[in-house]
Design brief:
Elements: H1 2-26, E1 39-41, H2 71-85, E2 92-93, H3 95-111, H4 137-143, E3 149-160, E4 162-167, H5 184-196, E5 203-207, H6 210-222, H7 225-231, E6 238-246, E7 249-259, E8 278-281, E9 284-287
Parallel strand pairs: 1-3, 2-6
Antiparallel strand pairs: 3-7, 4-5, 6-7, 8-9
């Protein structure tokens, strides 16, 4: 009888040991997360375009009709109203991010001078997240001295300032497919070549109000799943808007960021770690 009890005790201890080992190794382990380089959020770009009217330089936005306010702030406030409707915190205006967005809006407008000529029957406004230097918004932010972000995103929009054109006959315009993997400069030349091949025409225009334009831009973003996701991403905290015009076309850029607590250039190290391209020296992240 005693032998049986001893045997049962040994079996019990063996089972207990097996269960203990299983318990220890099946618990969630602690994962040390080494922060990557600031991520980029690539959204597809909705374009809304009727057509043009000339001016040769990309211009800064004029003061709007709403109390003389900068139209960029009007776009910004309307985007924030969409966040508030969704129960999210409003974004804070970041003037450094806005400067990066403005520079890219002006760059897009400059590129589109020959694609939006008033004396042509077609316009091919071209917007793209990858610039001619191969950078996306994260690269443009860092080049503009904004390195203190852990997440970034960008929404783009192109729209004509007029809602109706009247003139000679009808002309069927070609559509051009575009991929962010393609070469931007080559795509620009391809479109310019097509526009140059078209006959000259004459049009008269009926224009949108600035309030209409802003409504169409923000409603266009909200009507696109990927752009809406960016606007309603709760992690984003700050943003800036760029607005530039050429040949009666408007190019709008909104850049969003989440601030990094550490790991950025000039900032504190994250447990001796920094973003890609930076080194931790005496507790601060500096360029290698």
């Amino acid at each position: 009888m005693q032998r049986l009890l001893n045997t049962l005790a040994d079996i019990f201890l063996a089972i207990f040991a097996i269960l203990l080992i299983f318990y220890v190794f099946s618990q969630p382990s602690v994962v040390v997360y080494e922060r990557p380089a600031p991520s980029e959020y690539l959204s597809s770009s909705p374009t809304s375009f009727p057509l043009p009217a000339p001016s040769l330089n990309a211009t800064m936005p004029e003061e709007g009709n709403e109390g003389g306010r900068d139209v960029r702030k009007v776009v910004f406030d309307k985007v924030n109203s969409e966040r508030l409707k969704a129960g999210l915190k409003p974004l804070k205006w970041n003037s450094e991010v806005a400067e990066v967005a403005q520079q890219y809006a002006e760059e897009l407008a400059e590129e589109n001078k020959l694609l939006t000529l008033k004396n042509k029957p077609c316009a091919l406004p071209f917007i793209h997240h990858k610039d001619v230097k191969g950078r996306f918004q994260d690269g443009r932010l860092r080049a503009g001295g904004v390195d203190y972000f852990s997440l970034s995103a960008e929404n783009l929009f192109a729209i004509s300032k007029w809602k109706e054109r009247r003139g000679e006959g009808n002309f069927e315009c070609l559509s051009f497919n575009w991929s962010e993997d393609a070469n931007v400069s080559e795509e620009l030349l391809r479109r310019i070549s097509y526009i140059n091949s078209l006959p000259n025409v004459s049009w008269s225009y009926v224009y949108w109000t600035q309030e209409d334009l802003v409504d169409k831009i923000v409603s266009g973003w909200m009507g696109s799943e990927r752009h809406r996701e960016v606007i309603l991403e709760e992690d984003f905290e700050e943003s800036g808007v760029g607005w530039a015009e050429v040949n009666d076309f408007v190019f709008v850029v909104q850049v969003f960021i989440k601030r990094a607590e550490c790991g950025y250039n000039g900032g504190p190290c994250c447990d001796s770690k920094c973003f890609e391209g930076l080194s931790c020296v005496d507790g601060r992240c500096i360029k290698e």
